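HOLO CASE FILE
Compound: flavin mononucleotide
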Amino acid sequence: MKVKILGISGSPRKGNTEMMVVESLKAAAEIPDVETDLVDLRGKLSPCIDCDRCPVDPPSQYCAIRDKMDTIYPKLIEADGIILGAPVYFGSVNAQVKAMMDRCRPLGRCGHLLKYKVGGAITVGACRNGGQEKALGTIVDYYILTGILPVGLLRVLQVGAMGLGWRAGMIKDDEWKAEFLPEGKVTWVDQCREIGRTVAVMSRVVKEGMRIVDPNRFITGWKLEREKLGGSEGH
Ligand SMILES: Cc1cc2nc3c(=O)[nH]c(=O)nc-3n(C[C@H](O)[C@H](O)[C@H](O)COP(=O)(O)O)c2cc1C
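Model generated. Tokens follow.
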């Protein structure tokens, strides 16, 4: 059974975030039966305006706003695993990444279309402690709130892959000491490769497992609850 891993580079430039996401996808593609795809958030991507016109049944258009999300929705829905990379802007994810997250509201309304995908998080900031952890936490919160199953790094006990770089391309020199690892150091490439492999393997595990246990029999989402309540409006 094939799985698709979608890498999303959230930076408005072709910079460090994209380098990290590409590296994670290369590692994911080494796992058997894994296909990868990359999208970026460059170009027109508007924030959610809470017009409350999100459809409740899968339509041809998910959002009333016409922009880059038109091409991203089908890729998100098709993916079995997602690796979202965000640059740190003022201590958290940048505006493009937050806009994409908020614009996923219709996918929840149409029956939690992101649920049970596997998610990995990547971030890069110019300073060593510039907000990478909070940015990763924001991505993981988005995963939990959309039903995506987050995975992290086990070898170095991190919530996701973290990079250090300012100008586009500067990240290539980043590494830190880790006495507990045989190689004695951790590079951004190691971290990205681990998150890529973990998302790929766990996407296969989840997809195969769902052939045996259908979670929809046991776990109802917002849409099903709403239907039970006779169509009353919710989040
Ligand atoms: C508006 C803005 C705010 C930023 N804020 C932070 C910050 O709070 N902490 C940090 O470490 N780096 C910050 N940076 C630096 C970027 O995170 C860094 O340049 C990163 O490598 C950009 O990723 P990219 O190359 O993928 O665009 C900021 C950059 C911009 C443009």
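CASE NOTES: The first helix runs from residue 16 to 29. Strands lie at 3-9, 34-40, 81-89, 92-93, 118-125, 149-150, 161-164, 175-177, 185-187.
CLOSED: yes
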